[in-house]
Fold:
Amino acid sequence: MLNAPWNLARISRGHTRNDGLRRYRYDATAGPGTYVYMVDSGINFSHAEFSGRAFRGANFVLGSPDDDESDHGTHIAGIIGGKTYGVAKSCTMISVKVVSKSGRGNMLWIRQGINWATNDAIAKGIADRSVINVSAGGLYNASVNVAVKNATDTGITVVVAAGNHATFAGAFSPASADTAITVAASGPDDCRAPFSNYGRCVDMFAPGAHIASAWNYVDNGMKYESGTSAAAAYVTGLAAYFISSETLRGFKAVRERILGASLNGVITDTRYSSNRLAYNDNRVS
Structure:
């Protein structure tokens, strides 16, 4: 893919940082047969980026429509599986709404959303081909972390945002969940984004600053956003990408592949976080 956004180009470029090529090299067949549960604010299901691959799942926000009212979920979905901006351009995305129009959620909704996604994947026999993306959270909550553990115990990969408070991610859930892949944000300079949480529960970094993706309010629109939510979305996309292209099955195999493919030692100002940067193992020559 030529003239790719910096963030897509970065996850396929290897150790070379700013080479000016802006190419995203990837396996064009990756994504089919994988299922991403979006625990977020909903999705604009008619957006051109999704080509009919985004579906309604569950809605835990009382009195709210299934569609995205805050624009967060649509942007994240575009990073995961959008045909232009996405990593796994052919994956199936299932909306699990836990964030309201105002951008607020609560830990009960998040826990319910994770549990619903887990049970749905089990019922459909797709747990080992599924990924749960949680780009929402709050202060440490043991029941939310247990929900993550229950999901990964079934073989589902769970990817979560580290948070945007510029402090230790271990104070938040599901960022502190032991079996989640917790993702912090980096910028074009391969430095930790100033807003990104950090610490020993962070498993890796991914691009999270000035990220182009789908815009909720126009069916072919685009906008730029920053946050660890975007960073988590890149890793969720990689999980679906590797599950499909390499026939990986189960959380442990997917986690090992993602961390094994990541670039070591390229991020500055990690602040006790694991110094790994997301990489799709398709180096641009």
